[in-house]
Known about the structure:
The protein is of the alpha/beta class. The chain has helices at about 1-15, 140-145, 165-175, 190-205, 225-245, 255-260, 265-270, 395-400; strands at about 20-30, 35-50, 55-65, 90-95, 105, 125-130, 150-155, 160, 180-185, 215, 250-255, 270-275, 275-280, 305-310, 320-325, 340-345, 345-355, 370, 380-385, 390-395, 405-415, 415-430, 430-435, 440, 460-465, 470-480, 485-490, 505-515, 520-529. A hairpin with an 8-residue loop joins β14 (about 305-310) and β15 (about 320-325). α4 (about 190-205) packs parallel to α5 (about 225-245).
Amino acid sequence: MKQFFINLFLKIMASKAIYIPLLTGAVVAASGGVVAGVVHYQHTHEVVSTETDTEETTTRDFKLKETTTTAEVTTEAETEPVELIPIEELTIIEDNSSEPVHDVPVEEASGISSSDLYEVDQLVYGIDVSRWQGDINWSAVAADGITFAMIKCGGNEGGLYEDSKFKQNIEGALANGIQVGVYFYSGATNAQTALQEASLCLELIKDYQITYPVAIDWEMPYGAGSYSGVTDAISTFCNAVASHGYQAMAYSNKYRWYDCFDGGAISSRYKTWMACYFNEYQNNRTRWKYGDDVPDFNYGYDMWQYSSNGYVNGISGRVDMNIAFFGYANYKAPGLQEPKITIANTNNVRYYGSHSGASNQTWSSLDGVSAVNSLGYKADVEYHIYCSNGNEAWDSYAITHPDNYTIYYSFKDPKSGKITAKSNLSVIYVYETFNASDIYATLNADGTLPSSTDLTANVSCINNVGDSAPLADYSIIQVNKYDGSTSMINQIDVYSTRLDPINYNYIIRYTFDVPKDTYVSYDVNLFAS
């Protein structure tokens, strides 16, 4: 249990989102005895409306994924958008899909009550559909309590195809206020085929407002493809989807997640859609409700397909029923809008001091920079800094090397492709000019300096950008002529301390507060007699 909370902490810290824990708990999975952590969170979801910029707080409930696997997904997520295969280079056939026959385990209720795992009833109810649901009355679906739909956009069964009802379904759902995600019925057992599938999938959905995940539906027969090959295929699809600005997700039934690919590695990086049916929801109109049991699962899951034989008003015949343990139940998505990058200051000036050895302020290239994509969501911005000679630099280099830099910002928008903007950064080297001359003074009879001796007369300091530096302090350094040892006479004591010019030399040290740099000191000689 101690390790679970360590893992939980690391996963929260590694996330790009901000999560505030409200309730924790744990469930022991019946199969294999693996602990799957369950936590209720409040997620700060930044939303930009078409009228005003606002920030909303949406409650999301989901299972965190803790796994015992040590395997890694072969292909790491790309920092740049994955290069897709142009649609004209793909061979697309007519929808030849077979009516789905879900090879999904049907089990008795697990005994794990959702009310023990979730603080409040804010789970989200949805369906997934394809051409096999026929012509759907989406207005009736919405009125029957369905808030999201996972819509089949296409598949690969002997060839790539678009689901013949995809456009009708997605446009009908969106027109009736139902938020949508999509899934692609995969036939991939290797990375190359998966990239073809992802390329078609992203081409099909580019003109629609997708606010739920884009999923690869992998339910090939057992033995189709090697364990590593299927893992590569799912990872490749999800990487491509994520790199183009969508939330990636993988779907399969409970035991394929265990047996056919590295479910732990996939689940730890992407949203997980798991199918496992309870007897009580099969072949009847019973719907899962908050407080009912949820399945055990080795890895945890974000969406649960709990029945393939549900009934929803507006759909003739059966339909797959789902619960999402995340969602936008309190958020009404705005219409599509222009994606943009906002830069608070496009002409930044920083100063590199000759004495401080660093910029006068802490600074980051992302200060004052924000972006929103065409779906209305805050986008993660990447940037590159280039010197005046065209070489690329990092923040830490730029603020310590005077030059005129250009910063290029970008993010991948799901609809409009790569969005870019730029700003300028000028790093100016600061140095000071000190003006003073040696001072000659005749000491009083007691060896002290006469009070009429002005130690600050004609002393000044100015930097090269035109800032005068005020004198912050001065002192006298007493240097032993024989052994070189020193002692200091502070400003407050310079007129009351007896000086001994026979045995000591004297230096006046002036300290200036130099703008855009730091405190700097200069020395002049004091000749006393």
